[in-house]
Amino acid sequence: MSDTGNGSADDGPTDQFTQPDRDRGPTVEFYGGRGMSAFPIAFFIVWAIVQTALWRIGDTGGLIVGILIGLIVGMFFVRGNWQSYANTIFEGMTQPVAVTAIVAWIWAGMFAQLLQDGGFVGGLVWLADTAGIGAALFPAITFVLAAVFTTGIGTGYGATVAFVGLFFPAGVLLGANPVLLFGAILSGAIFGDNLAPVSDTTIVSAVTQDADIGGVVASRFKYVIVAAVIAFVGYVAAGSAMSGLEISAEAQAIFLESSEAIGLVHVISMLAVIGAAIAGRHIVEAISWGIVLAVVFNLAFGLTTLGDIVMFNAPPDAPLSEPLASLPILTVVEEPSAIGVTGSLMTGVAGFLELSILVLLIIGAAQIMIRGGAFEALLEWSIDNLATNVRNAELTMVGSAALINAIITINTAAEVAIGPYISKIGERFNLNGYRRANILDGQTAALGYIFPWSGGVLAGYSAMQELPGNYEWLDQSMLVTPIDVVPFVFQGWLLVAVFVVAALTGFGREYVIDRQSEEVARV
Amino acid sequence: MSLFSKYLKGWRLRANRPTLEPGSEIDVFVAETNGTSGRAYIGDTELIVNGAGPETVEKQVRVRVTDFDETTATGQGELLEVVGESSYSG
């Protein structure tokens, strides 16, 4: 590319072109070099593959132990003061992106549980049954609805949690293939995460590439829609080809009989969330409005009682338990193991507590890799050796964004980390901000929902763990382990493929001389 | 540009080596320098920017294109001014 400078522009001393030295030393040094700072993350990935793929144990608690051991062992490779290592873990864990993901999970978890307990799944089943939507079409329709919902609310994690809680059981009961259903939900989340103007990944991709959000969304539409059309056809075809589970006819009949149209009142709850998000409200506020409406509908239509939403189960010897036992939110229990707080809100939150801790630890380990220099070494190497012309540069951008998303499992955090490097490679070839932002976010949105240890897949899997307790006919064997869904996240794979083809052919490529991105509207 | 036309922008295959128009003024990022001249890549097209020293590397500069050879996709230009910073913050 540049440094050989063998006289293609024939005038002047072009063989002496160089870049000013910008060496920045790592802040945590390791025995064995910068690469050793990747040890905690690498250890965790190996642990996650062995645990979830080879031994099929989808226990989030086990993954926490994996990352903890990785962090502890990694500390022994630190050269000099160990305190900087510990401080770097804290620095990573306190990043806003990690907390944003946790907030989205917890709020969406409460919201989805309220809708579930309010009969929304029954309403969906009733609607699908009445409209004659069979098992074959259900995954494709789920994909479209999840895409619309995510585009509206902007958080793919939240949408995944809500749709696994609501559409997954409805689809399984109707005879749709569970793996395909989970894949369709993740695909819808990818579509929305990638395209929604209010999505955090959309915003990060625009801001890190100095591009305006409206222009970024408009310019990425072509990639997203090409992938989505093919994905939709894929879900229709696969829906016909892949059979569902054998749910006993009796259980199916009982559920269908109890499925009532009234549960569909929660469509309004969902629309309220979408409406508030589109109106520019913070995602916490938007989902909170949905929660408030869901509670009102559940109580007003008699779908649940107040005690179903939140219930204090207190021991008889507590000072005020007996006198206030008549309250609808208080139950006096004799059995010590029954003491606690239950109800939709608690169940909705509980599924994500372990995952939240895991994510914080992963982000902490990723920060070790960044501060220790392995991250930079990897990217500098790819810039120097792979990005030798514009086509290879774009493929390098695709590949490095994909790789970092495989390592940092919360996709927004991965995007924040890789964003400056995408800008460095892209600006070298004068690719404009839109093109750079689109390549960056395409991989980030897609791969954050493909790898079995990625935040989107783990969030969906955690939400799924709660389902057997909610439906008698649904047992643990019907759930989808993260590794199984990997090939069926059609939108994700297709989006990556679209960008590879776009890099090879120049489809959608824009240089800064073609069009410059407008001012960033900072959010 | 209207919102609708923004959605239609870019539905084409763009060349690896875009052509430059002599006499035109363009804003480009300078990739590297030899101290007195800089080199910018627009895709695989190379543009020597006379007068672009180390202070312009990884900055966006306005250049008047003075010469362009389509067969080799190389050209020359004169530095007019520095117009922007890189979004790369390292």
UniProtKB/TrEMBL annotation, chain A:
Can you cite an annotated GO cellular component? Answer: plasma membrane
Short name of one Pfam family: Na_H_antiporter
Cellular location(s): Cell membrane
Report the transmembrane regions from the record: 31-50, 62-82, 94-112, 124-149, 161-186, 223-241, 261-279, 291-314, 338-363, 445-465, 485-507
Domain called Na+/H+ antiporter NhaC-like C-terminal: residue spans: 222-493
Instruction: Write down the membrane topology.
Output: Multi-pass membrane protein
Keyword terms of this UniProt record: Antiport, Cell membrane, Membrane, Transmembrane, Transmembrane helix, Transport
Which residues, if any, are the signal sequence?
A: none
Q: Where is this region: Disordered?
A: 1-24
Does the entry feature the keyword Lipid metabolism, yes or no? no
Cell membrane found in the keyword field:
yes
Please state the protein's primary subcellular location: membrane
Q: Please name the GO terms that the record assigns under molecular function.
A: antiporter activity
* Membership in a protein family: Belongs to the NhaC Na(+)/H(+) (TC 2.A.35) antiporter family.
| Protein name (Swiss-Prot/TrEMBL) | Na+/H+ antiporter NhaC
Gene source species = Natrinema hispanicum
The upper taxonomy is: Archaea, Methanobacteriati, Methanobacteriota, Stenosarchaea group, Halobacteria
UniProtKB/TrEMBL annotation, chain B:
Q: Which residues form the DUF7513 domain?
A: 1-81
Report which superkingdom the organism of origin falls in: Archaea
Report what the protein is called.
TRAM domain-containing protein
Query: InterPro entries annotated for this entry?
Result: DUF7513
Q: Which Pfam families match?
A: DUF7513 (PF24353)
Top-down, what is the taxonomic lineage of the species of origin? Answer: Archaea, Methanobacteriati, Methanobacteriota, Stenosarchaea group, Halobacteria
